[in-house]
Known about the structure:
Layout: E1 10-11, E2 19-20, H1 23-56, E3 91-95, E4 101-103, H2 105-109, E5 114-121, E6 127-137, H3 138-145, E7 153-158, E8 164-168, H4 169-172, E9 177-183, E10 186-187, E11 197-200, E12 212-218
Parallel strand pairs: 3-12
Antiparallel strand pairs: 1-2, 3-4, 5-6, 6-9, 7-8, 7-12, 9-10, 9-11
Amino acid sequence: MTKDVNPARTAGGEDGRGTPVGRRVVLGMLAAGAAGVAAAPFLQSAYDNTLGAAAQQDPTGLSGLLPGGGGFRYYSVTGSVPEKTERTYRLTIDGLVRHRTSYRLADLRHLPQTRLVRDVQCVTGWRVPGTPFEGVRLAALLDAAGVRPEAKAVRFTCFDGAYSESLTLEQARRDDVLVALRMQDKPLTHAHGGPVRLYAAPMYFYKSAKWLSGITVTDHVQPGYWENRGYDIDAWVGRSNGRDDAPTT
């Protein structure tokens, strides 16, 4: 024969003879749990912002070992990175183009947007599955600028003043390479390289340059910051850097 037990009056014993728990205590526990759920996004955001800021001031790089929101790690190659706002941000496209162009953040938002959901794979080993990115296809910006026939590659510079990356022109024109404005269905935060970053979906994440400020069309590939320190220029996930990770597609 079984006996029904009122969980509002007992706790701790399978047979219902545990320590009595009052109704107010139970209601208080439920309220505290609900408050924790409601506060979680704000606490996670505060943690991410704090960790991102710490990474920018960390010359050792050890802060990059700590997981942030969703398993991301935060890296910066400079002591600090200035923040750009709606008013101050500009993205310049120049080099071997017919029309040198400068985009404000509002200009980029008004262009057709593409949303991709892929895994993010870092060459150091961590992976964040099913991450949405949204932005303007890089190919569309290159077409609008009018790439000259002698062009072979694209170089990316960042407003941290140090980071750079490159893609061949063929790679840059892929449908899964974006000038990204949103990540995880929210505007890109400063810690994640906002307000605008490059997103090269099929490549290791170091190719997706944060804090993007310049796109220069060139006649040859110019190795980026990490390529000059030993990383592969063609950084296909699972087919470069001596790694065999599963593709991000």
